[in-house]
Amino acid sequence: MKKLFYPALFHKAEEGGFWVSFPDLPECLTDGDDMEQAYEMAVDALGLALTSREGEKSPLPAPSTPDTVFVEPGSFLVIIEFDMAAYKKKTNSRAVKKTLSIPEWLNEEATAMGVNFSQVLQEALIEKLQARP
Fold first, then answer.
1. 49-58, 92-101, 124-133: least confidently modelled range
2. How many other C-beta atoms lie within 10 A of the C-beta of residue 36?
3. CA 6/CA 82 separation, integer angstroms
């Protein structure tokens, strides 16, 4: 999946910092003590909202174009870049059980050497996919 770009509205909070809303995802709200923290929180909130919708089998809304978003006074528009694959790697490290077959002789030699099959498989897949954990 490619990166997604959703518009977010940053509003100055009365107590300082910012609160953030997403026109395309009304349930997605967050805040931060400063611009940097608010942006980071916005990326996390967007990830949670999108993966929740995905988990519910709901379609992801198409991002609005910046020129169609109404920006109320005291607010400003920021485009939030979101990488679904990177977010899932960061937040979903739940182990899944896989059944596989290898030649008996290979199993015997690996078992005799105390090889951790799960670790070897993970390392091999990461290398094969050129992925970073």
1. 124-133
2. 9
3. 8
| For residue 70, pLDDT beyond 90 | yes
Q: In this structure, which amino acid lies at residue 25?
A: L
* Residue of 60, 59, 79 whose CA lies nearest to 69: 79
Residue bearing tokens 């182990």 = 95
Other CB atoms within a 10 A radius of the CB of residue 48 amount to 16
- Token pair listed for 31: 């805040």
Reduced to 3 states (helix: H, G, I; strand: E, B; else coil), residue 8 is strand
Amino acid letter for position 125: L
Summarised one tens digit per residue, pLDDT across range 27-61 is: 999 999 999 999 999 999 999 999 999 889 999 99
How many degrees, rounded to 5, is the angle at CA 27 between CA 24 and CA 33?
Answer: 95
Q: What span, in angstroms and rounded, lies between the C-alpha atoms of 18 and 32?
A: 5
Q: In whole angstroms, what is the distance from residue 90 CA to residue 110 CA?
A: 31
Q: Using CA atoms, how far apart are residues 81 and 56, in angstroms rounded to an integer?
A: 22
